Structures are given as structure tokens and as C-alpha cells.
């Protein structure tokens, strides 16, 4: 791999955009970086890992766990400049998305080729007890020696899954299973039935909830199947987007993307996910509104029953499964990205979630994932138009297609605000669309790092929901100059002070933010004070910042950036803070208490009164720190 490019550091975006026209190459592609720096790249090395599709990430202590279609790898990232491979565990299936909880690792299996014994070779028989479609459970108490302890079979497999905790229940952890494939035969898994929305026993139109006893994870089992998809409308379609998706699109080659139905042993077909095919056509309502009666379906709409079983086609319905669900247990909310629609769920009773609202949008082809703001008053949904294997960031593609849709949550209702899409046009040989990301714990702001496949990663500030703004990025040139190869970033997540990225073909990348006029050193330092023992981005934790001078400084920097407080008062506050930090004991406490009082006095006359009061409260907490 070439050395990391020196980042451009500036308050305004570079022009012309250096992401456009980057040199192609598998391992020597050109790079562009703005306000962030690539620290390290760790390519896959093992024969059955090299070339396999690398998927999602989870974190535990100093370890990053990276799923891929032939298993998972565990890296020690305590030195981000030189990650160390601790374990390469072979266990083929797709997508092999991973998550963790304490000493347990969970992994999704959806393909028909997945074997209970983690072996290669697939399962040739149409009905077989050797097949696993569901959730694998591993004990990772010893990271170097993971142990498979359970395989929980489900009727539609697990495309993705979400670990969720029930506040007050310290003995169990729960898993929401999102399975998007066909229904298994009851001969293979008793109780599975393929039926329509009016069939109370159908394996469609339900969410499967697994309970995992922490003291006996080998007894993990499905405990409920709530019908959260009943009564949903048929999603809208968009004729212009459908035509654009068909126009001039080369067939993808290489590893499968997020929507791939890949098999084991590296034979990963590049096919769209269930519901992830190109969207369809016909007018539809605005974002957040239900489609009119008789509206045609979008990708993600489902037939009522019997898909692939012969007979006349059934009328379309709303979605019968989610692609992914992000939970926010502390607030009792979940965002369901459910193919044709976005859902808001009440999960205060984890085993029996209840749908409280839905959103439809003609510009959203395939609702893929969700991210809440830290205060839970906003939610951002991604749209994986084209299933992740198509070029959807061309200069001819509209910015609201394959983008993020941002909503506020008002009285448990989703209210549309705006779209955001990575702004650099990509080539027709680069699969590019909105994909997985996470919040960066910058206090007082909603900032997210997000993967865009071969569109690179983009850091967006969506504090102002009407005007989301890119503030940093990294990108490489096309993997192949002449044909579409599925690659790029599957996931980019902030974890304990760094950005860790799963690159579909190139392995594991680690980045750091660079201070600029858009993100200050204080904001970066304050973000680094938020630490996790483990992290699954889809099980969203609430950020809480410990008292620090960086936290106070971050708020002062934001007030300076927005002119939220008079410049002379900001200068005086910074000087007082620096002087106080040079003292100790009672003099330090007195100086900080005086500064807090001065800020509270200044707040009523400030343009941003709320931010000034946040700064004052942070100073008070710092003064009380012992």
C-alpha cells in the first residue's frame, strides 16, 4: 500500500474536489484526505480471507472484530499505527455481520451455504440439518480462542441483527433478527411457514427476538415474534430514479456488497439484497407522508405470500422485514430501516416492541440503516439505492437519491427535514451509495462519520437538520479503471478516539481527525474522553462527557465559530480557564467557580444562550472534580 496522503486542512472545502479523478488501482490507488488522516491500513493475508467480502465491525476493549463472508478476524488496535491480528476464525456464511456483548460475540448467517460446523463446501441438499441460517453465538472470553457455543436457527436467516438490552435486566441480552431471505421449509426447521400478511403463522411480517442468558448462552432461543409490520402501506416509487438506475450501469464484478447473496469459500455473488433491486416508477408523496391508495411499490415492497413458490403473483404489501434496526435503549426507541419504509419503534419492553410511526419517501429506494442524535430528538436514515453493488454517485444522479434522509422526532412522529449525500461525483466503475456510519462524540454537535463504499468516507455535521454539511473526508480511486468492482468502505465507526473502517477488499483502515476551523483540537480531545468497554453501533449508547478542560474549550470554540457569544467574553473565558488549570486545590476551584458565574451572567445577552449555559455547567463540573 502507498503511504497515506498528507491531508488538506482548511475551513473551506478544497476546490476542485481532489476526490474527482483519483488514480485507480487495487493496492496503489490515489488518495484524497481533508481534515483527517489515514493512520494505518492492514490488508487481509490469509488465503481464505484475501478476496472475501469484509463486512461489519464490532468492538470490545482494545479489539476490533471484523466480519467477512468466510468468518471473522480479531485485531488488537491498542496501537492504531500497527494493529495486530489476534485471531482469524474461519466460519463461512453471509453476511457474517458481527456484534458483541461482554464476553459474547454474535454473527449473522443468511446464505443457504452456511454450515452448522463452520465448514466449507456448503450444504448441497435442499433440506438439511447441517445448514445454519440465523445467529451464531461465540464465547470470546479468550480473544485468541473463540468458542462456538450456540446456533439459533431462524426461518429467514439473519441478514443483520441488533443487540439490545432491557434496562433493569442484568441477566440477559436480547437480539433483534433482521432476516430478508425466503422462508425455510418446515421440513428443515419445524414451524416455518410462508404465508401472507393475514396468516398469523407466517414467518414473514414479524421480527424475531432472541433471548441470550448471560450465564448460559448455549440456551439462547427465540422468545417472541412481534408483528410490527402489520398495517403498513405499499411504499412509493420514483420513475426518474428508476430510469437513472437502469441507464448505463455496468454489471458489477468481484466481491459481493452489503446486498450480496454471497456463498462460502470466496464465491461471493454480487447480487442485490432482498428488496435491494433497482427501484421502480410512479409518483409518490413527499418525505414522511404515507403513499396514496393504489400507489405502486418501491424496492422493498413485498408480495403477500408464496414468493417463489409458484401460482399467481400476490398483491404487493408494505415491507415484511427490516434490513437493519438501530436501538437506543436508554431512550426506549429504535429506528427500523425496513426496505421501503422507515419505522420508529417503542422498545421500552424489549421483547415486545411497538411501532409508533412510519415514514415513506419517493426518493428513498431502500431504507438501510438508522442513526439517532445523542439527545434522541433526530434520526438519520440511509438509503442503499442499488443494493450497494451499483454506481449511484455519478454526476447524473440526483443528490437526494442514495442519500441520507434526516428527520426530527416530534411527539413520537417522524418529521422530514433534509437530505445529505457525499458531494463528490464518482465514476461508473465505483459502487457508491449511503452506508454504515456512527456518531462522533463531539459535545454540542451532531457529527457523523459514514461509509460510502468506493465513494470513501464522509464526515457530516447535521446539527442543523436543514443544512447538513460535509466537514472532512477520505477517498481512494476506483479499484478497477475499466469495470465495476464491488469494494470500498462497508462501515466506518468512531471507537475510543479513532475512526475504524472495514474496507470490503483492502482490509482494516484506521483514521484520526485533524484540527481545523471546522473541528477544533478541544472538540477532538473532548470526543476522546468518551470511552466504551464494548460497542455495537446499532446498539447506540448515550454519550456522556466526563469533566475536562477540553469539554469547556470545545463549547467556547463552538461559540466563537458561531458568534454565539461576544468575542471579548470568549477570550476572557479562555484566559480564565487556562489560568485555573495551572492552579490546584482551593485556588483552582475558586477560579473555576468564578468563571462559571461569569458565563451564567453573560448567557442572557448571548446569541446562543443554551451553549453558554452548557459551557458554564461544564466549568462547574470541572470545579467540583476531585
Describe the structure.
The strands form eight sheets. A five-stranded antiparallel β-sheet has the order 1-28-27-26-25, with no helix packed on it. The chain has a five-stranded antiparallel β-sheet with strand order 6-5-4-3-32, with no helix packed on it. The chain is globular, with a radius of gyration of 24 Å. Strand 18 (333-338) and strand 19 form a beta hairpin. The protein is built from six helices and 32 strands. The relative contact order is 0.12. With 626 residues, the protein is an alpha+beta fold. The two termini are 47 Å apart. Among the domains are: 91-227, no CATH class; 549-624. Helix 2 (521-528) runs antiparallel to helix 3 and helix 4 (567-581) runs antiparallel to helix 5.
Briefly characterize the structure.
The protein has helices spanning 239-246, 521-528, 549-562, 567-581, 585-602, 609-624; strands spanning 31-34, 36-42, 54-60, 63-68, 71-76, 84-90, 95-101, 104-109, 134-139, 147-153, 160-164, 172-178, 208-213, 221-224, 302-303, 316-317, 324-328, 333-338, 341-346, 354-359, 367-372, 378-383, 404-410, 413-420, 437-440, 447-451, 457-461, 469-476, 489-495, 498-503, 507-513, 534-535. The protein is an alpha+beta fold and 626 residues long.
Observed structural traits:
single chain, 626 residues, alpha+beta, five-stranded antiparallel β-sheet, 6 helices, 13% helix
Secondary-structure-derived class: alpha+beta
Mean pLDDT figure: 91
What is the straight-line distance between the termini?
A: 47 Å
Number of strands: 32
